[in-house]
Amino acid sequence: MRALRVHELGEPKDVLRLEEVPVPEPAPGQIVVRVLATAVNFPDALLCRGVYQEKPPLPFTPGVELCGEVVALGEGVTTVAEGDRVIGSPVLPRGSFAEYAPMEIGRVFPAPPALTDTEAAALFIGYQTGWFALHRRAGLREGETVLVHAAAGGVGSAAVQLAKAAGARVIGVVGGAAKAEYARALGADIVVDRHTEDFVSVVKEATDGRGADVVYDPVGGESYTRSTKCIAFEGRIVVVGFASGTIPTPGLNHALVKNYSLLGLHWGLYNKRNPALVARCHEELTALADRGLVKPAVSEVLALEELPDGVQRLADGSTVGRLVAVPHADR
Predict the structure, then answer these.
(1) In CATH, what number is assigned to the domain containing residue 305?
(2) 255 & 146 share domain
(3) Which of 4, 70, 246, 306 is deepest in the core (most CB within 10 A)?
(4) 290 in helix, strand or coil?
(5) Which residues does the UniProt record annotate as the domain Enoyl reductase (ER) (predicted)?
(6) What angle do helix axes 154-165 and 124-131 make, rounded to 10 degrees?
(7) Domain-located, residue 119
(8) Across-strand partners of 35?
(9) What residues make up the domain containing 63?
């Protein structure tokens, strides 16, 4: 089978090589899927650079999210059958940037019937992250105002749709006119181009000075720091990631005098500590997809050989929505 592999660490466009490798065999408790589609995530770029929290041995295949067709069952697997369409995360170092990939059965979920293969491939990580951030951590309520940073990106676009599905008003922050147009199409009520506007002023004006009830921040750096200037009394800032490359050092005295909460979200921990909640979240997301309230915004569908460039562009911040690859040339 064909797979993209990393033999030395560096920029994705430089280190991802298309090779022929054996089709994996499932270990006990695993399945092997034919990868119907695989979504590109920021961790894929971090894996190539060697700065992700998980560091698989070289050589490895990136790709942390997929939609696949079950083709082989490992010992003890009884909850799926060959031919089932599923989504979830593969088992590194054999990720989903390949024609076939292994998966642990505990991280395998039915693909929502309402979504295509490419859409379903992008549902797992971004939408689970958004659901846990907004509902589990922030306790989002109908009618509240949510400020979403990187609203045209992968996790940001999911947060926009989930907040709207919950009855919230969404203010999306993006970088550039094209991304602003994309965020509006996603359903954001107000869109701020950070290149030309000050989101702090926009939030204050839109809320009559009250501020945003919830801030969804996968960016960090200056985005976090300025968000503290427009957070509401008893508001909640959810720290999701640091795509800016800068980890903020918050002044906790400011949180005290303004009565707001700082909430961390490391979604991956729920897979280990509370997998039943992850399964429940998947059921909720499937129901939302069935009702047409959430739908991954797939902006590009790539061939496997186009992925190195796609991962690089995502890492450089020049993409919108979700990039998805279809590894098999016959699809």
Answers:
(1) 3.90.180.10
(2) yes
(3) 4
(4) helix
(5) 13-325
(6) 50
(7) yes
(8) 68
(9) 2-123+296-326
